[in-house]
Amino acid sequence: MKYEKMKNNSEGKFRRITGIRRKTFGKIIKILKDAEAERRSKGGPKPKLSIEDILMSTLEYWREYCTYAHIAVGFDLS
Question: Do the Cβ atoms of 6 and 18 come closer than 8 Å?
Fold first, then answer.
């Protein structure tokens, strides 16, 4: 959702919004996908957000210290 809009932005704008470089973002995503695959091998519900959107919400929280209510609205969560 939100990541789909962000991935087409320039490197400068991506870094200004997320606080990290796109290359670093990609490395974090690889680590998170490996961990998610291991966790999902044990079963459980599929997350509503993609791994990329989960990371985007975390970075937004850390960068702006906005409330969970603002993040929920931004990522269409309850």
Answer: yes
